[in-house]
Amino acid sequence: MAIYEEYTDKRDCYSSYEDLMKRFKIRYGADFNFAYDVLDRLAAEKPDKLAMLWVGVDGGEKWITFQQMSRRSNQAANYFKSLGITKGDMVLLVLKRSDIFWYCMMALHKIGAVAVQATNMLLARDYIYRCNAAGIKMAVITGDEDCTRHFDEGQPYETVSIKAVTKHKAAGDGWLDFEAGMDSQSEEWQRPSGDANTKASDVMLVSFSSGTTGYPKMVMHDFTYPLGHIVTGIFWHRVTEDGLHFTISDTGWLKSLWGKMYGQWLGESAIFTYDFDKFSAADILSKLEKYKVTTFCAPPTMLRMMVNEDMRRYDLSSLQHCCTAGEALNPDTFHRWKDFTGLSIHEGFGQTETTLTVATLYPHTEPKPGSMGKPTPGYDLKVLDAAYSEAPAGVTGEICIRADIKTKPDGLFMGYYRNQEATDETMAGGFYHSGDTAYRDESGYICYVGRNDDIIKSSGYRIGPSEVESVLLEHPAVLEAAVTGIPDQVRGFAVKATLVLKKDFTASDEMVKELQDFVKTRTAPYKYPRVIEFVAELPKTVNGKIKRAEIRAASK
Predict the structure, then answer these.
(1) Rounded Cα–Cα distance for residues 529 and 521 (Å)
(2) Which candidate among 26, 221, 234, 434 keeps its CA 20 to 30 Å from the CA of 554?
């Protein structure tokens, strides 16, 4: 029996989609903790079973069993504890795709400390906000590239008292050698008792979610969050006990927890992790072939690049199931992928605040190009109009989840850390308001329309316009700035900046290049505007707010 079956029913026991939605229920104890109740149990019962196949950019391999994963996480927990990390402390993890990320996550779960993920593309201003806003006590950062230098440029921080680095020789002064520290620790760790033990309702992780007004919000999830991903890994990814699952995501994003940890290990599947520096469609296809990946999930942007390769050069016969999420999948990519592999791409939709909320769940819902699928079990999802009434078929409304019930759905966030006002606004009227708009077709499938708060989804990244605008406004030539997304064949959407220059500056190609480089050096490079338009004035409301929707409409 697969371990997930202790928390829900066997996935193939449901006779139909309607039966799945009616009977699906997650069961767990009041002190559920994934690190103890899933990882450590697998390590005890199936110590030699493969947990992760890690491949480095240089081709080096690590075949890590569940027993090794458990013991290494114990060493990491002991090291964190020796440094004074205790239950409730915030720990920032910037580790790319290093296997150390998994040891740290499981260690922090065991301690009850709060994991905070971040991408290695952050610069000083990004670190300053994230560390101070979240009250970070310790940062663990990769020694690759200039990550530690960018972090140090943001010092001093209000609460950071410990900083540790992997690949220690690459760091500057004051950095602890995390790998050496972890290696020096015991492989034994006992689950705490009493108040030191975690409860299922405790905060487990905090993730930053891009916003359009102000800086990113901090999304809190409790220890039931991994169980919310039973649907993700078992029912959507369709992982198998003898399989190898590959989701393309680095560990700076919550997507890595969707596809590289919780649901997959609940299904006892091994995870494939490839620590590449730059995406190459041919390279990924060769890895699918070489390592015989069985289940695969990638953003539509990457799938579009892959079908533009000569896929017939690769033996992909090991693939059994394929999924995508992050942005809309165009029908051409769907059909070309199926022509090459014989497999449909199963779309899914969710957010930082949720787990998988809409999807095509084989075999109960068939993929329909242009649609994300149907609501997933565990969530009472509606498409609502402005009056909180369910929108008729074909009418666009907001994707919302009922939240006025006694027990919140497993996987739905707890609220925004240190921001009760935003939490109350998002949970208004007894519903969680996603901010994403869609409509139902006559068959009940949900078709995505777009964001109602201007978030830009580009190549799988979520970009908040206000962050880019604030950087542009620091340039001496920029008077006003409005950042929007425009359709892009490769990226889904590209970042566009519509700018008003100060009177002493002139629009030119040189100015465009200067502004793009300016943004690249002051915030994460993936946020820079690929398109810049200069205008005499920006459209605004009577109270002075910029009308981004009007700018987007003019750019189509």
Answers:
(1) 13
(2) 434
Helix or strand holding residue 227 (H, E): helix 225-228
- Token reading at 550: 């009007």
Residue 428's Cβ-side half-sphere holds a number of Cα atoms within 13 Å equal to: 12
Return the closest-CA partner of residue 265 out of 293, 287, 234, 292.
234
DSSP letters, 527-544, are GS-SEEEE-S---B-TTS
Rounding to the nearest 10 degrees, give the CA dihedral for residues 279, 285, 290, 295.
Answer: 100
Tokens of 222: 């409790």
Over the stretch 200-233, which tens digit does the pLDDT of each residue have? 999 999 999 865 456 789 999 999 999 999 999 9
CA dist 520 → 310, 476, 513, 527 (Å)? 33, 16, 11, 8
| Averaged pLDDT for residues 120-139 | 96
Per the listing, tokens 């795709």 go with: 97
Q: Report helix, strand or coil for 446.
A: strand
Residue 314 to residue 527: CA distance in whole angstroms:
33
Cα distances from 104 to residues 108, 168, 179, 226, in angstroms, run 6, 17, 11, 16
Please determine, for residue 40, whether its predicted confidence score (pLDDT) is greater than 80.
yes
| Paired strand residues for 401 | 381, 432
**Residue range 422-463, pLDDT digits in tens:** 999 999 999 999 998 899 999 999 998 877 767 788 888 878
CB 507 within 8 A of CB 515: no
Q: What is the model's pLDDT at position 543? A: 47
| Global confidence as pTM | 0.88
> What contacts 303, CB < 8 A, 6 or more positions away?
324, 329, 333, 337, 345
Distance spanning both ends of the chain, measured CA to CA: 52
Strands 217-222 and 203-209, by their bridges, are antiparallel
